[in-house]
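User: I'm writing a tutorial on reading structure tokens. Could you give me a worked example: one chain, its sequence, then its tokens, then a sentence or two explaining what the tokens reveal?
Assistant: Sure. Here is the example chain.
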Amino acid sequence: MSQPFLIIAAGGTGGHMFPAQALAEAMLKRGWRVRLTTDARGARYTGGFPHSTEIVEVSSATFARGGILSKLLVLPRIALGVLKMSAGMLRDKPDVVVGFGGYPSIPALGAATLLRRPRMIHEQNGVLGRVNRVFARRVARVACGVWPTDLPKGARGVHVGNPVRGSVLERAGAPYIPPGDYPMSILVMGGSQGARILSDIVPDAIAALPDDLRRDLRVSHQARPEDSAHVIESYAEAGISADVQPFFQDVPRRMADAQLVISRAGASSIADLTVIGRPSVLIPFAAAAGDHQTANARGLVQAGAAVLIPEDALYPDSLAAQITAILSQPDAAVKMAHAALAAGKPGATDELVALVDQLAERAGQ
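And here are its predicted structure tokens:
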């Protein structure tokens, strides 16, 4: 019997790549051959994928970036990517193709649609991304990370949750040390690519905390390279111990060590928070398509696990007040951590694996 073959197609952000990595890890352990198709941006996030994953960069494009000439070339580049992927699939037929969103997933999903290969997509957010919305009615299943998800008529959705990487699962339900009169940690994340508004506001908010809280704090702050210098300077001027980096390879460890997480409300960040179980202050990205980050955050807020601050209400004093409220009330912080944990779906990867197996079995009958 030949080794089953899975193609995973994912775009160039951590939000797409991290759940794709989780599926790759699981399917390789089950004896599948796994190929990841992505673009140059996505390739930056492949360091955590198992070494046995085949990684292929594909030709795709987006209307969201570039000038007029770039936009005119979008459709020809996408068509070329689909044709090349189709030729590859004719030579090396995948048993299942799974797309995780983003423009780099178009060639694999487009080719699988043309060749009628078994296919499905996973949507991390409560509102479908543009590419997933195009393919939602052309795949066997839409595996949803958030429920309910806004699906187009005719799409067959199933709630599986958002898969998390093995390094996150290793810290699932890690004991929470409540805030107190000892060194405490805050993790600040703007998503896989940082967020300028957090770099502008968070250091000033932490500097404005009462002395008895501020003197015990250590901060891990993920900031864009162009913002790092002023973030480092802001923390240094306030006498706050801070580790500022463009990207943390060890987010699960830092999150498990944290008394509080300040973050965007991307789907992967929400999934990590609920599997590890930590209180959070969430600042949804206001320009996110369909305001999907607010939709992502809603469940945690309603569960009492998080505080939501819209971008237009985010100021140093408003954020400082929320940080103070959480870190000065240990019992309430513990309840938030437990509520986050209760909202998690640590079995999301297993449910997604089961759907892949079902597709492969149905195609083989």
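What the tokens reveal: The CA atoms of residues 286 and 336 lie 24 Å apart. The chain has a mean pLDDT of 92.
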